[in-house]
Amino acid sequence: MSHTILQVQELVKRFGGLVATDHCNLEIRTGEIHALIGPNGAGKTTLLAQLCGELAPDSGRILFEGRDITRLPIHKRVSAGIVRSFQITTLLPRLTVRENLALAVQARTGHSFDFLGTVADESDLDEGAEDAARRVGLIDVMEQIVGTLSHGKQRALELGMALACKPRLLLLDEPMAGTDPEESKRMGELIHSLREDHTLILVEHDMDAVFRLADRVSVLVAGAVIASGTPEQIRNDPQVISAYLGDDESAETEAVQ
């Protein structure tokens, strides 16, 4: 049985009078793809921001491998193995794929260099960059300027930069947003392949992809998890159907079938 790698306990985050995370509880098991789904405004991105250290919760705890990381800053969470990718672009479009990946390796290792132009010349950085590029299928475009890549390849590069940080827990925020069907298919295949070596939390609006990829799914509504289970359990949970869809049977079919 997989053990628990991440626990969220009674997490609360308020923005003035708005409760974005409302006594949220969540458990992530090692080696799984765990999807977070919910209506717009449910608090999914706010929860991810707290998990990676971008936002500090008002109360509650976050445990990673049993260690309380609730107040740990972002860079120390990255060193511990928690890395977030997607939704907000982090690419440097005027640099090459190689240089972007080398910078991600540098961020993980703390390797020093005098100026940006020397980054990709450092052998250890370059080796890490090439390893990440192979993993996401970009080894043939290492010297291409990032701004000239297709949207799908830029998404793959974002994932490659996250992988260059050697995460144990990878947080993916809408990795298929804006991709065409073929790019979405390739991204899904890539995400599925990552579960061999990583634990993943996936926030994604493409329900077909969610139910195809996820081992377990948690449903977030108004900042709280109302259900967790296998995709099949979530498909058939009356509380989930009601929270998402009310009495609209046609919408129900579209969202969960």
- In angstroms, what separates the terminal alpha carbons? 29 Å
| Cα shape | globular
Order of helices and strands: EEEHEEHEHHHEHEHEEHHH
- For the CA atoms, what is the radius of gyration? 19 Å
Q: Would you tell me the overall average pLDDT?
A: 88
**What percentage of the residues does DSSP assign to strands (E)?**
15-25%
Number of strands: 10
What's the quaternary structure here? Answer: single chain
Structural class: alpha/beta
Could you give the topology of this structure?
Blueprint: E1 4-15, E2 18-29, E3 33-37, H1 44-52, E4 59-64, E5 67-68, H2 74-80, E6 82-85, H3 97-109, H4 123-135, H5 151-164, E7 169-173, H6 181-194, E8 199-203, H7 207-213, E9 216-221, E10 224-229, H8 231-235, H9 238-245, H10 249-256
Helix pairs in contact: 3-4, 3-5, 4-5
Structure description:
This is ABC transporter ATP-binding protein. By secondary structure, the chain is α/β, with parallel strands linked by helices. The chain has a domain at 91-166. It is built from ten helices and ten strands. The protein is globular.
